[in-house]
Amino acid sequence: MSLSYVHVEADSPWSTYLSQVDRVVPYLGRLARWVETLKRPKRTLIVDIPIEMDDGTVRHFEGYRSQHSLTRGPGKGGVRYHPDVTLEEVMALAAWMSIKNAAVNLPYGGAKGGIRVDPKLLSLKELEKLTRRYTSEIGIIIGPHQDIPAPDVNTNGQIMAWMMDTYSMNVGATATGVVTGKPIHLGGSLGRVKATGRGVFVTGREAARRIDLDLQGARVAVQGFGNVGSSAAELFGQAGAKIVAAQDHTGTIFNAAGFDLSELIPHVKNTGGVAGFRGSEPMANEDFWDVACEIMIPAALEGQITTDRARRLKAKLVLEGANGPTLPSADDVMADRGILVVPDVICNSGGVTVSYFEWVQDFSSFFWTEDEINVRLDKIMVGALRNIWDTADRHKITLRTATFAVACERILTAREERGLYP
Ligand code: GLU
Known about the structure:
With 422 residues, this protein is an alpha/beta fold. It has helices at 13-24, 87-103, 124-138, 157-171, 195-210, 227-238, 261-271, 307-312, 328-336, 344-347, 350-364, 370-395, 399-418; strands spanning 43-52, 58-69, 75-82, 110-116, 147-151, 219-223, 242-248, 251-254, 281-283, 295-298, 317-319, 340-342.
């Protein structure tokens, strides 16, 4: 039965998620009886966020927090600030968090939040007010043992600091474990900022090894040069790969010899995007998908790899740094063309894995070294990917369906063991 409170369009994030769930049903055996559980969020809160702007006017913003599943543990997932955020998108992102957390076996359910706002149009003071009021409004369902937000698109450590402070002031005690991705002196973890990009690299390295793709000299194209895309690019660069194309909201750049990342990364920091980088030539946005490369990393928003783009891709390996970048029909095209896709729900799980480390460190008030973090992250991701790969080989299914199979089995077993109350 479809939900009455969302209007779902074809190829929207929620319908993409639903079709990914449908594809896994044949592999769930008796647990298929519980599958409807995955097709509806446990609860979703919609909040109004009024703030007084610097010019004295009052503006209202729409905010959400969706808890898709709390079966395996507290909710966990980021908060996104973007003008196109919708209820339906946040629901899909929350559901993907449930799958991701179960795929890496973190003791969490899945949740996600968002505010429909363009944060670039707000002053720092307005951004702080927006964040604090949003946190207060969703305060009734978040907490270190209930649901733990983290950064996502256009949110960062400063926003997590405000969220932590607001929640703490409201409950009357400093609760560092209520959010992750915090600054280091507020209970943040070393390695968290770059963890998602590192995870993309780790899964990419393992996948490349399996398909005999040498990273030395491999050409990489990256869509989205924010936290995830730039950190992944850096690690691929260190492994000898060449980043030949990059695209973000400011434009597309190309350099057949590979960019000098020690110049590109500061350029993006200083100017807000890749456009105008001296060591590159500009390229038409749509041509990005035709670039000759071995590895394509979509690390921006959902729905980027359409059927048409999947037919044009030159890459052998697609590493989904973003959540939901590929439409189901495009998945089929890439499978037919022999392009290997490491799906978002394992590929970008490095961020939430280090969020888990941060949460554990906050509870024990004992902090690990960056080396300990990175070694543990590598080990968890390699182990999770190996298990997924074995599942894919056993059933002859894509890595995406295999990741869903591993994750859904864990979630639905927990569902069955807990039973229905009352
Ligand atoms: N926003 C990130 C994601 O999509 C991280 C979530 C977290 O650390 O809780 O996986």
